Amino acid sequence: MGGAAFTNIKNEADVERVRVDSQNEEAHQVCFSKRHNGLFKKAIELSSLCGVEIVVIFSPADKVFSFGHPSVEWVVDRFLAGNRHRQPSPTESHREAAVRELNW
Predict the structure, then answer these.
(1) Superfamily per CATH, domain 3-103
(2) For the segment 9-57, what is each residue's pLDDT rounded down to a tens digit?
(3) pTM
(4) Which of 30, 80, 92, 102: CA 20 to 30 A from 63?
(5) pLDDT tens digits along 65-95
(6) Residues 6 or more apart from 27 whose CB is under 8 A from it?
């Protein structure tokens, strides 16, 4: 199995993907249950640091786990509609309001 390089805010790590088949499905479930909180934490960091809308949906064994900013439904609906205009984040809106106030 080959490794794939991923970059996060701390360092680069090689991650090997686990092939899902009937013999290691249970191992895959255990691995996911240990790591899904970390995956969602990284999604939150990416969303707040870069000011992006993000959605992560994963369904092992018909049990859905999801994270979305500002919400899963909002991001999915926007994606399906082909709407490419970005909604300003609350931080951006607050910053813009403060700049306008200072300019008065």
Answers:
(1) Transcription factor, MADS-box (3.40.1810.10)
(2) 344 444 444 444 555 777 777 887 788 888 888 888 888 888 778 888 8
(3) 0.48
(4) 80
(5) 777 877 778 888 887 887 666 665 566 666 7
(6) 18
